[in-house]
Amino acid sequence: MTKAELDRISFLPDHLIDRILSDLPTMEVVRTSILSSKWKNKWTAQPNLVFDKQCVSAAASQDSKLLRIIDHVLLVHDGSINKFEISSSINDLNSVTSVDIDRWILHLIKKSIKVLVLDVWIGEYYKIPWCLFSCQSLLHLKLSFCRVKPPTKFEGFKKLKSLELKHVTVTQNAFDKLINGSPLLERLLLEHFDGFTEIHIDAPNLKFIEFTGKFEDISFDNTPQLAAAYFNLSFYQNRLNGRSNNLLNLFDHLPRLKSTLICTHFLKYLASGVVPLELPTPCMNLRTLYLEIDFNDLKQISVVLCLLKSSPNIRKLALSVPLKKKNALLTNASYCWENLFSLPAMPLIVRQKIIVKPDVNVNSILMTKLISLRKASVHAEVVNYGGSDSQFFSS
Q1: Cβ atoms of residues 321 and 295 within 8 Å
Q2: pLDDT for the residue 342
Q3: Between the CA atoms of 255, 259, 263 and 264, what dihedral angle is there, to the nearest 10 degrees?
Q4: Distance between CA atoms of 382 and 318, rounded to whole angstroms?
Q5: Any domain includes 345
Q6: Of the candidates 265, 340, 264, 329, which has an alpha carbon nearest to the alpha carbon of residue 302?
């Protein structure tokens, strides 16, 4: 048997070998250098460097081993770096300091990095160095456990398409610069941020947005492409900021919204002020609606009914019912859906499926009431759903 027959992979065309290596974890790609002289430097041209939780945990078992690995990979790497990711659990990076990460970022900027993921905890929030804000090659930026304070002359990332900020401290002015100065931004995710409480979004190409955490107010301006919006407000105090109603202000600026998730506290936010029976402009594109509702709150029910009446093309509706106690009682307000509208009562219009997702075992009376609601479509069905939220939106 010939050498080529024994080692078929080594004799594959270079572009196929590169494709194989691109599907392997970074640490495994580096290990291919010991196979033969032909493989010694193959890994040094791989454009994606990912030091994920599995890789970091393995290396962290020996003090400073991870530092040496990343430093060596960056030093020897020959070619462009499209993606650099380092992510870990809370206690894996005891030996990594802010100086180390600063050094890596400076090197990556010189390589015109396109995708940067920093999801690390080094004992404190990591302060993003000013040099990163000059990197105009960035397409995707994900930061966790960081402090973001750009220089005063920062005007945004002109090519950025995706921004994720989790457990990040950033001022109102800095956040506004990040959003307004990134005209190509298509995806925005904010999770447990602090430093500002009012969110104003001006992003003409934004298609997806997700908020989780505390904020006092949110407004959209110039977001004609926004198709999916998920709102998970963890706390809300009744504020209108000079408006007659938060519900009208929000949906009036989301003309192309196709799917949305609204949790209980954000539903309270939308219920501030006088809730109309129907939105002035119908949500003609809304197809998927996920609502976490307190059936004992008449104002929340009013918001839900207003949305349903204003969304004639809904295909999927999910109702999640969070009860603080398993034996929590449901008042008469829980069953007054049709009474909130003048006669004749509004039929519930859902083209395909109504999904009820209780967090606990909800009183069977409530389930019976929901199932018995009149449906405009004979094809719609009411089901009790036990899957995850992500499965609901993807199904």
Answers
A1: yes
A2: 43
A3: 60
A4: 10
A5: yes
A6: 340
